[in-house]
Input
Amino acid sequence: MEFWVEDLGLLPYGEAWAYQKEVHGEVVRGKRPPTLLLLEHPRVITLGRKATGENLLFPESWYRENGFELFWVERGGDVTYHGPGQLVGYPIFPVGREVRRFLRQIEEAIVKVAAGYGLEAYPTPGYAGVWVGEDKLCAIGVAVKEGVSFHGFALNVSTDLNDFTVIIPCGLKGKGVTSLEKLLGRKVPMPEVKERVVQAFAEVFGLVPRYREERHEAQV
Output
């Protein structure tokens, strides 16, 4: 069985969120196979189902006045940041009731990507995500509706890590964030990381990737 891969480039969060819902509906109805959307976002703060706002360090208006969009969304988890240099992946896959297993599979795929760069990364029981030492390399938060997932992961490639200082990422006090670029001490090409992520997903999920060039088959 195959899965489709769509590279959406740099896309505002609101537009990507709407497009996810379109694709999700198509997967639910059997109109398309499992689909992995890969993209970057302009600077944005998102708050998931566990968020109360207490892990925002400033009023919501401050973020919008200082170049961040801000959205309350239906994914799992608390508050996180997305921005340029961060590879965001939205795997819109049928998962049924096996949500926990699906999260572990995403983590396994990201651990494989990190290992390909010679990095020893690991998931932490009780918290979705992938870590190197005490620093989070990849945040993960999904939602499942009608047995199909959406939202997904955010892998720091060359992200400006200073932007994380305006929140308490994922509500975890005393923990840091890191990136492939910081860990390796060199530039890491985003196209290369995308290719490695797709290959890791193919291996973990046992699916064959098929790249889709025509982006908005479902209209935003």
Notes: The two ends are 27 Å apart (CA to CA). The chain has five helices and twelve strands. Residues 99-116 form the longest helix (18 residues).
